[in-house]
What does this fold into?
Amino acid sequence: GAGVSQSPSNKVTEKGKDVELRCDPISGHTALYWYRQSLGQGLEFLIYFQGNSAPDKSGLPSDRFSAERTGGSVSTLTIQRTQQEDSAVYLCASSLTPGSEQYFGPGTRLTVT
Amino acid sequence: RKEVEQDPGPFNVPEGATVAFNCTYSNSASQSFFWYRQDCRKEPKLLMSVYSSGNEDGRFTAQLNRASQYISLLIRDSKLSDSATYLCVVNRDSWGKLQFGAGTQVVVTP
It folds into this structure.
């Protein structure tokens, strides 16, 4: 069946521009998670959605980062006024229920020049 | 101290050999445990969940030791395709906020 999909797969942007990253979770999965992984580093939790609500936004690095989820499905992560330190792979995962196994999308590789 | 700690390796393993490595976690209230594998420049893929009584999936065996707060992964009859980074993952919240270890690199050589 279809897995988690993310778009774009690669994004190069200039410092100061805004970017939007999209995640389509596995159909029927109620929980959705955003992580990021910098080169050679481990995964860093950003935000979690249960349905359309985000009970935990504690991992968002700054107020330049925001995310929303609509219809209990697609989620968008927005980074405003991008900085070079935002360069990373942004990974989305979904799970059937909170706490069950999470399945990852292929990620969006963001490069801020 | 990191919440989840792993030996980064690399573990260099001859094809056909057995390799095992551990991961320790700091939060005794952690509820569920997983092993993921991550290939270079790819997303993490779930390898297996880890159950209290230990569990096996083909050549892979996972164990959980709650008293000492570690989990282990053993790979038997290693294949070249087992070369990857193995991520220890701990869920300490009921809603699934995963804590990832930095990974253990395994390199299987012919």
